[in-house]
Known about the structure:
Layout: E1 11-15, H1 19-43, H2 53-83, H3 90-93, H4 99-111, H5 123-150, H6 157-164, H7 184-226, H8 230-236, E2 238-242
Antiparallel strand pairs: 1-2
Main location: membrane
Pfam families: Ni_hydr_CYTB (PF01292)
Protein name: Cytochrome b/b6 domain-containing protein
Amino acid sequence: MSSSKPSAFEVKSYSVWDKPTRLFHWINVILVLALILVGGIMMYRAELGITELTGKIGLKTLHVYIGYAFAINLIIRLVWGFVGNKYARLSHMFPNANSKNELMAYKSELAAGKNPQYLGHNPKGKFAVLGIMLLLITIMITGLLRAGTDIYFPPLGSAVQSYLADANVDPASLKPYDATGVNTEKAAALKPLKGLAGEVHVYAVYLLLLLILLHVFAVVYTEVKRQPGIISAMFSGKKIIQGQPKDE
């Protein structure tokens, strides 16, 4: 990247999104879509003719395995948010103490007919990215909780089995959706937590879908009206900017 400042009409290419950031983005897209697909089948399995318990457990198991990949990808991205390049860092992606002023200035420039250019996310985009990331983390945590309480999968499954096992029952012998060997009082005590985690999980996914739709609309609008090349940048890593970027 050149250190000289471009003129108002000069067009320059900048390396912005590093490879790990781009890989996370597209892997996350694929995994979220896969989770939504399998989750949708789970919700409507009866209508689809999947009525056997083995089918229900099989779908949940598939959902959890995809969820593990989703969680690993998300955790790697969060770690990369502290060690990656400037534009990959969470401190640059998320709103900060000055973000409200930046947002007001951004809106003022747009209202004045100007076209401010950004290498990273613009002030509106930072709030959207924060919202999406918080939802992804919420979905991950509640999903792992349900994986442990529903079908006794790691990282919480063994602890849940040990808690639920009746006296003189081997916790490892407990099976998903089978009350054999389960302490009924402990199962009843755990049920509200399971229910809450499940509701938060589902509604977080609904909200994520809404934010994804808004995000796609905003990206396409910005690509067409404000700053061409932001979509291709998530493939190439490079942004083409006319004039001086606001966040160089």
